[in-house]
Amino acid sequence: MTDLQLTLVRHGATEWNEGGRWQGVTDNPLGGSGEAQARRLARRLRGQVFDQVEASDLQRAVQTAQLSLPGQNITLDPRLREIHFGAFEGLTVPEMSAHPAFEEWQSDPWQVAPPGGESLAEVAARMRDWAEDLHQPAVIAFSHSVAIRALMCELFGWPLIPQSGYPVPFAHRIGHTSLSRLRRHGGHWTMHTLGDGAHLEVQGEG
To answer: Domains (ranges, CATH) in the chain?
Structure first.
């Protein structure tokens, strides 16, 4: 199996992100702030060389890839999509909480899927299937928050930790256009950075 340096990027922000709506596979474009985040990322990635550029086929991921790596060929793969939230698509957390299926989903979100959607285990399985198919030495991929963290759980055995006011049981958050860097060597995965958003920090003058 080819040794691999993998950079995973969460897409830039959409209007639904800013409004607290969980969009899943709803195909929203980047908002103005998301475009600005992607342009900052472009400055950070300038000069870095990748053998392969991949992205979820949802437009917020595609647009982030295009803005941050202009002129690069991008391979789209639906396995990089966000979790399908089914009946919870487009809802805020309070609206989700009022849904009659919410408690059942929260009882075991790794195995239980929202009505019409995916379980975290299903997301993790397709993400790992995608990752194991990579055969270039240096790959950057533009994906989504829950999908990236589900892959981390699958690869590294992260425990699921329920979070107050947050329906996905991940202890770590990753920001928009943040970078998470992994290495695969001899079939063994290691994580080097998680959710690195240094390019979004406001720089002072002088």
So the answer is: 4-199 (3.40.50.1240)
